[in-house]
Amino acid sequence: MQVAKVHFIAKRDKRDILGMPLLGFLFKNRYMLLFYRLLTLFLLLYAIIYGFVNPTKENVFTTAVFWSLFWPFFMVISLPTLGNVFCMVCPHGFLGKHLTRIGLKLRPPKWLANPYIGLIGSNILAYWFVLYTFPSFLRSPLNTALFFTFFTLLSALLFLLFRGMAYCKYVCPIGSVNSAFSRTSFTWLSTYQEECKTCKKPDCALACPYELNPSKFDSRNSMFNCTLCMECAHACDAVKLEAKPWGSSLYKEIKQPKMIEVMVYILLTAVITFTMRFHHGLSRSGISDFMPWVVVGKYLQSMFNLPKWIDMTGLVAMLMALLLVLSVVYLSFKMVAVVSKRSLKDSLLVLGYAFAPLMIVGGLSHVLEFFFTEYYHNIMNGFSQAFGLGIHVEALAKRGEAWLHIFKVFPFIAGLWSLQILWRRSALLAEQRRVLVFAVASSLPGLYLMLSIFALWVMVSFPSVHTHGAH
Hints:
It is a single chain. With 471 residues, the protein is an all-alpha fold. It folds into 2 domains: 1-256, no CATH class; 261-461, no CATH class. The protein contains 22 helices and 2 strands. It has helices at residues 21-28, 30-53, 61-77, 85-89, 91-102, 116-133, 141-161, 166-171, 175-181, 193-197, 203-207, 217-220, 231-235, 259-279, 292-303, 312-340, 344-351, 356-360, 362-387, 410-429, 434-441, 443-461, and strands at 187-191, 239-243. The chain has a two-stranded antiparallel sheet with strand order 1-2. α6 runs parallel beside α14. The longest helix has 29 residues, at 312-340. It is globular, with a radius of gyration of 23 Å. Residues 1-7 and 466-471 have low confidence and may be disordered.
């Protein structure tokens, strides 16, 4: 597509990344983007094929690519910093843009046009439920290859059938998750509004494979479903990618708030952050036998005589975390609705965005620690195995080393940041009763901080007597 002729090219904002020679090249240049996408596509296909050819546990490459590289780096580390860069280079999205062009371009039916399919079905049930209940399942190279083969074939089918990148929007396990959590990043895509005033046809919107209009992102304070594919920037030079204060959009009014974003924050805070604290934290402490999910899990395991490869403790921990978080949110926001004289839905849509840091920033603690103890040597040794590099490295640190405790600060940063955002957003809901609204709505981040303090106290007072894998 032709680049729109605009006269301001030499006068880009100082914070516009696309105007910075090196960063602009890395984020916008067609050939660099093609290189990233071909690289991730190659890794996806090679890791899948390698998993089928070498299905035994001696294959460390397949699991390293998906669980030590793609998941922790692109999801947990890049989202709160660079934004939705994984979707920018995602091999499924890359293939999808080409398959959609030759496909049937049907409008997705109403039952499919539902992002909760991806969040609850593909993410929570297909991944987290399996991870907690059958912990060894996805550690298998063969099962990992089958898992990603399924989603690769499913994405190809949906891209061929439907328009608007329907798979990414509604079915992808991380589609709505990435869009929601990219709000905590330093980057923001938008357009130069002065140039848009004289625009007779929105080339940026016409070029977007996701059928979005970047010129509306600022006024709506939302980039939901934007994957930073940069097709809009290639179609019109009035598109900019700004470096903004961390999570700046979370402090402002959102014109068209999405309940799916709020539910991403709430559900994944329960399924990931709280469940990890329960099952991979307190369950490995010296007082694990007193934890309710351990007691109930062991009872169910014994009562039904279940094999060891089924982990009822993990399943019960996830269900208890979901019940706890959803109950706290529901009860506290019912009270917020009464205090603010707004509906429960309105209260959640205004204040729920404050919960964004609880999972994505809190999760950094786990991922960064595991980079030193597990991920680094898994990645290096996996690539050495797959490409015959002949090298072997050890972990950068051993579990339990004192300096690793520095990463325990991240949950407290997450909780305090959540409270700060909540205080700012409380004025948007009920300025005259702001203090009372804040006090009631802070139940979830308050509980999160208390759990973090309790887990830290248990770790110090009752040292771990168990070890566990880093999957």
